[in-house]
Amino acid sequence: MPEFTPEELALPPQKYEYLDHTADVQLHSWGNSLIEAFEQCGIAMFGYMTELESVEIKQCSEIEATGHDLESLLFHFLDELLFLFSCEPFLICSKLVITEFMTEGEEMHIKCKCYGEEFTIGKHPQGTEVKAITYSAMQIVNEPEQNNFELFVIIDI
Amino acid sequence: MVVRNYNQELEYLEKINSYCWKIKKGFQPNMNVEGVFYVNQTLEKLMLDELRNACRPGMVGGFLPGVKQIANVAALPGIVGRSVGLPDIHSGYGFAIGNMAAFDMGDPNSVVSPGGVGFDINCGVRLLRTNLFEQDVLPVKEQLAQSLFDHIPVGVGSKGIIPMNSKDLEEALEMGMDWSLREGYIWAEDKEHCEEYGRMLNADPSKVSMRAKKRGLPQLGTLGAGNHYAEIQVVDEIYDKWAACKMGIEEVGQVCVMIHSGSRGFGHQVATDALVQMEKAMKRDNIETNDRQLACARINSVEGQDYLKSMAAAANFAWVNRSSMTFLSRQAFAKQFRVTPDDLDMHVIYDVSHNIAKVEEHIVDGKQKTLLVHRKGSTRAFPPHHPLIPVDYQLTGQPVLIGGTMGTCSYVMTGTEQGMLETFGSTCHGAGRALSRAKSRRNIEYTEVLRRLEDMGISIRVASPKLVMEEAPESYKNVTDVVNTCHAAGISKKAIKLRPIAVIKG
């Protein structure tokens, strides 16, 4: 089992909420930077699958995602996280740390360390299954001048 | 886009009769055909309220009312007849859920749209009968519910128990229920009572991404979460004795098993992959739609064909999935009653797909045409004598299985000639959501929901009890209203009503 530093094990404060949508659920996250809002958005998705208090940090996987604009970058970022959960290593995460965040140029790029453990029925209460990420009513508020960073994503459940 | 107030919007809607409304051209831009929706008095109010709310000043966001979505679909290239909204319609991704639309295969501009199928490709309902009666099951109801729950993997993060490797998966994707039969999980007769005989022949696993296969492999033979369920049901009322008889339902009190599930992560990923591909194809072919969510591609384009082939593979996945759970249900019953499933007469009555696109022959303006029929939250309902329905149901019409919500009734209907003419042989699929999940969670206590089910004599086994209020009956439209509307409008005919005595959910 890998060793984690106390810093790695410390959980960030919650900066997300779930908003109303008829058939699905809308994730709303925010932060002091776009990076933080992205990280929080990913956690919000995991928080719908289980109760995050039950998740211990025991392993770490790295994911990469690309996109041609911020919306598609967010879409693929969440899709990668969903994939991480859906098959090997079946990882449920309580902490995400984005280590690379390239939003300049033709292709945008993200690298993220995902901390958590393998989803285990019995240990982790079963929440709702996320079927897919959607572009439906996706909003990215990116206003560095106002220090205002917010994301809105509808996930299909 | 023109902004109109509610009364101005209403001028585009016309009530044709007590159960049917027309949506005139101009309601949304570029409509090629008119729209239509079926509602009774109660459902009509829900439908119009949704539109009124969306017309309030200051409404923003991506929430389009179902009636607007029907009209946007009517603007897609190649659509024929009408864009149809069924009584259980509610707002969905691109297409509303409970929306069907047919596209002319002979028109080179016609499109296929993954949004017209939905993320859960070939989500559907299967009904098994037994020769048991309520009094046989009541004394062991709790044990039987527990046994089903132990046999069938349910809920988020559960894994299938049918042994599978990636080679098995490839074969299952190509063969559908022929794979289940070869491996010994089902009976040969099961295939007969299944749309497409449980296998879409144009499935091509090589068109499916590795990602979808990886997501699919661990989940084959799992029920899933959300509105999916397995229920032990009892025949509550028989409306059409002759049709019921053909289905092996003799009397009130007979016990059945209903399974509602789909293609799991596999289908979700196939749909996601296709949407990404089609965004590109739309730019290239200059396909304009009213809503970005209506991503589509020409049927004859590479993207369109690839989607249809991978969708067919996902459909096969779903049939194998429901077949695996049929196997597990038969095992659970056999162990409980210490007789073989055969002796319990556990035959498949029928298996319907309510999220799918199919190539079918229909009469349009007096001419026979080959159409690509999209049904999203809509069930095929072919009339008697249709060549694509099994010999056992040639005289009754195709059985249509309408799953209720947790704790409410389910129905079996049959297809009608009128449905064939008015809705391309399609009808409703279930209750249809009325409240958002978040609202259900705020308004209803989960302990209250569980207690009420108990009071009704329904055993419940659920993987995530704290979320049951999202699926509580008050979160949905009344399934009886929905079914009665279809019956009164003549697009399908009531045969049997079933009520649950045990529910297994994710």
Automatic annotation (TrEMBL), chain A:
Highest taxon of the source? Eukaryota
Similarity field:
Belongs to the archease family.
Supply one GO CC term from the record.
tRNA-splicing ligase complex
- Name-wise, this protein is Protein archease-like
* Pfam assignment, any one: Archease
Q: Which UniProt keywords apply?
A: Calcium, Metal-binding, tRNA processing
Q: Which GO terms describe its molecular function?
A: metal ion binding
Organism of derivation:
Sitophilus oryzae (Rice weevil)
Give all residue intervals belonging to the Archease domain: 16-157
From TrEMBL, chain B:
**More info:** Ligation probably proceeds through 3 nucleotidyl transfer steps, with 2',3'-cyclic phosphate termini being hydrolyzed to 3'-P termini in a step that precedes 3'-P activation with GMP. In the first nucleotidyl transfer step, RTCB reacts with GTP to form a covalent RTCB-histidine-GMP intermediate with release of PPi; in the second step, the GMP moiety is transferred to the RNA 3'-P; in the third step, the 5'-OH from the opposite RNA strand attacks the activated 3'-P to form a 3',5'-phosphodiester bond and release GMP.
Show the catalytic activity.
Answer: a 3'-end 2',3'-cyclophospho-ribonucleotide-RNA + a 5'-end dephospho-ribonucleoside-RNA + GTP + H2O = a ribonucleotidyl-ribonucleotide-RNA + GMP + diphosphate + H(+); a 3'-end 3'-phospho-ribonucleotide-RNA + a 5'-end dephospho-ribonucleoside-RNA + GTP = a ribonucleotidyl-ribonucleotide-RNA + GMP + diphosphate
Needed co-factor(s): Mn(2+)
Q: Kindly list the positions annotated as binding Mn(2+) 2.
A: C123, H260, H354
**Matching SUPFAM superfamilies:** Hypothetical protein PH1602
**Residues that coordinate or bind Mn(2+) 1:** D120, C123, H228
GO terms, molecular function: GTP binding; metal ion binding; RNA ligase (ATP) activity; RNA ligase (GTP) activity
Kindly report, in one word, the top-level EC class recorded for this enzyme: ligase
Please provide the record's keywords in A-Z order.
GTP-binding, Ligase, Manganese, Metal-binding, Nucleotide-binding, tRNA processing
Residues given in the record as GMP binding sites: 227-231, 354-355, 403-406, 410, 429-432, 505
Protein name, per record: RNA-splicing ligase RtcB homolog
Similarity comment text for this entry: Belongs to the RtcB family.
Q: Which gene encodes it?
A: LOC115875559
User: What is the superkingdom listed in this entry's lineage?
Assistant: Eukaryota
Instruction: Tell me the active site.
Output: H429 (gmp-histidine intermediate)
How this chain assembles, per its entry, is: Catalytic component of the tRNA-splicing ligase complex.
What does the record say about how the cofactor binds? Answer: Binds 2 manganese ions per subunit.
One GO CC term on file: tRNA-splicing ligase complex
Q: Cite the source lineage.
A: Eukaryota, Metazoa, Ecdysozoa, Arthropoda, Hexapoda
